[in-house]
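Note to self: keep these together.
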Amino acid sequence: MEKEIIIENVGVWMDGGTVTLKMKKDNSIFYEIDFVQKVILEKSKRQIENSLVPGSLLLNRKEVEIRSSLEKEILSEIKVAKFGTNISQSETDALNRIILEAIKFVESEDYITVARKVGRIK
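Structure:
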């Protein structure tokens, strides 16, 4: 039986591009995914206090290891997710483009480059 993955809400921050997805799996498991902005690579006080390392992928505010099986699973779930009923049809095309762009970045070599610049990997 295939899992039902729903994007219940999408937040697009005004900090340089952070995107937050509130997700639901199989009608019961709720979780939050953050694609942290990648424009401003210096960490601000707010980012440090909230563990928002530029260019990172977070699951429930915890950093996901780069190129891990968890990262692959999260991205796969987002790719097959459907939008919830509280997201209007008129918003879905634009939000889908934003989300796919965030996924494409995480899967790219630029993600590794940014991770090196901010000290996530050596």
